[in-house]
Structures are given as C-alpha cells and as structure tokens.
Amino acid sequence: MKQILFIVFLFLFFPSGVFSSDREAAERVTFVRGGNIWIANADGTQEKQLTFSGQDRAPVLSPDGKLIAYTSGNDELTGFGHIYRISSSGGKPKKLALKSMTGSEHAHFSPDGKSLVFIGMSDVKVKKKEGYDMTYATMSLSIVELNTGKIKKIVSTPNAFLDAGYIYSNPSFSPDGTLIAYQHSGSDVSGGFSVIDLKGKTVFHFPKKSTDPTPYWRPIFTADGKNILCYSPATNEKETDSIYLINLSTGAKKKITEGTNPTFVDNGKAIIFERWVNKWDPEGEAKSELWYLELKEGAKPRKIIQNASQPSG
C-alpha cells in the first residue's frame, strides 16, 4: 500500500513523468567536428569527442542509441572510405567486415538495429581514355546483417564512372523496414531521391518531373512513414538552403526552415540541422552550426552547437 501511495505522490508532483529525465537523457545527437565524430545531448549540452582520426564523417545512431556507425578514410583512387562502428559511450572503433566490397559508405540502421543499409563499391577498374585515367566501379545499395555479415544487394550499377557521382548515397530505412529511401548523387545542381522496396522496385521518386534538376538530398522517413524529410542545397548565392517535408502520397512539398542535413530527434517531434555562416563569402571563414527546431506551429529554431556538421539523432 505504501508503494502505491508513493507512486501516486510522484505523479502528482511530477506530472511530466518520473522517468522523463531518463528518456530525455537518452535523446542524443551525433555530429562531425574537425573530421571526428562527437556526441551530445539533443539540447547541445555535454559534448564528447568519440573518434580522433580526422577522416571521419556521416555518423548515424542506432535505434537504441548505443552504437554509432560512420564512414572513415579516403581511398586515393576512388575517394571512398569504409564503415566503422563505435559505442556511443566511447571506446575503440571497429571496421565493419564487408566481403567483396572495396569500399563502403553512408550506413543507416534498420529499425530493429540488427542490420545496416549502405552504399558499396566493388570491381574497381581504371581505363585509359584520351590520355586520362578514368575510374569505374560497381556501385550498389546493399543491406548487411550485423551478426552474420551476410550481404544482400538491393540495386547495383556496374561500370559506373566515378567522376560523374556515386549513383546512390544517403540511404535510410522506413519505420517498418520494408522500404529504403536513397539520394541520387548527381552533381551539385541535381539529384532527387527515390523510395524502393527490398526487391529494388521504385515506388516513389522526387521530383516527379524528370526534367527538374533541383537537388533534394539525404531523404529520411518520418515516424509514421508517410513523409520524407530532406533538404535542397543552394546552388548559388542568391538562393538559400531549404529543408522540406515531401508527402509520399501526393508528392506535395512543404518548406520547414532554412538549413541542410536535417535529422529527427525527440521521437520525431523536432529536428536538428545545420546552417552555414559565410557560405558564399570568398574572404570569410565558412563554418557550420547546429540548430534545433520543434515541429509545431510558431516554433522558432535555436542554435545549440557551434562548429559542427552532419548531425544524426
């Protein structure tokens, strides 16, 4: 009886819930600073450096927040790196063993945390053309089971000319794990995104018009799976970087705010994204900062972390 009265007392005097502080503490964001992986609370407090190679990028948190997968290194020939894993509490990074893959990048955890979808490179070849070395490779979007190392290729393109872009990049799983969204690399002035099933069939593409060159990058599903969060980088100084939600049923586009590389935090109720300072100033020092925005009417973004980029929550 005393235990019941104590619990009632807690909920009367702590209406937000006695476990809310634990839940909030679990809300973390990982990011890149100086070519290394860092982690912090979603409000920007308690920053901690996790890696020290100076060649790390594209971090992503596991669903339970215990692991971070990221890309490290740059192959001299292809520019590709390899996927590593590290505990979000720190420790020694471990390179992901991917048989038959020359390189791997842009990992994203499955909803159950047991697999990664990633971009793979294999069969690298150099061909001479008009006196120049032209590098080609098989580019693939694949899934690897973390316990077994078993790899399943979803889509692949053989003999892709690497200087023209990497074909696929920034894949992410849908909340139920049945779909994958990925970015078409293209160039700095193009590259939409597609949504495919696990057999490689395209079920959605944006922008709808194939003649529309506008870039829409880093697609991420909303928690209900009905929309895609993405961003469109400015391609000249007269434009602004913009973050959008794309409705998968109608194709309608809604601007959320100005910025790049958005990621969901707080169970999808907010986003963290980056904004650049002096991006187009040839004499200024360009730098990126992380901002936080609640996804509710009237909310205004607030800066939380300086000198940081590529957030993932």
In a nutshell, what does this entry contain?
Helix content is 6%, strand content 50%.
Q: Please, could you describe this protein's structure?
A:
By secondary structure, the chain is mostly beta strands. Helices cover 6% and strands 50% of the residues. It is built from 2 helices and 24 strands. It has helices at 2-13, 20-26; strands at residues 28-33, 36-41, 48-49, 56-61, 67-72, 82-87, 94-95, 103-109, 115-129, 132-145, 151-161, 168-173, 179-184, 193-197, 202-206, 217-221, 227-232, 242-247, 253-258, 260-265, 270-277, 287-294, 302-305, 309-312. The strands form 6 sheets. The chain has a 4-stranded antiparallel sheet. A 4-stranded antiparallel sheet has the order 4-5-6-7, with no helix packed on it. Strand 6 (82-87) and strand 7 form a beta hairpin. The longest helix is centred in the first third of the chain and has 12 residues, at 2-13. It starts with a helix and ends with a strand.
Which helices and strands appear, and what pairs or packs with what?
Blueprint: H1 2-13, H2 20-26, E1 28-33, E2 36-41, E3 48-49, E4 56-61, E5 67-72, E6 82-87, E7 94-95, E8 103-109, E9 115-129, E10 132-145, E11 151-161, E12 168-173, E13 179-184, E14 193-197, E15 202-206, E16 217-221, E17 227-232, E18 242-247, E19 253-258, E20 260-265, E21 270-277, E22 287-294, E23 302-305, E24 309-312
Antiparallel strand pairs: 1-2, 1-24, 2-3, 4-5, 5-6, 6-7, 8-9, 9-10, 10-11, 12-13, 13-14, 14-15, 16-17, 17-18, 18-19, 20-21, 21-22, 22-23
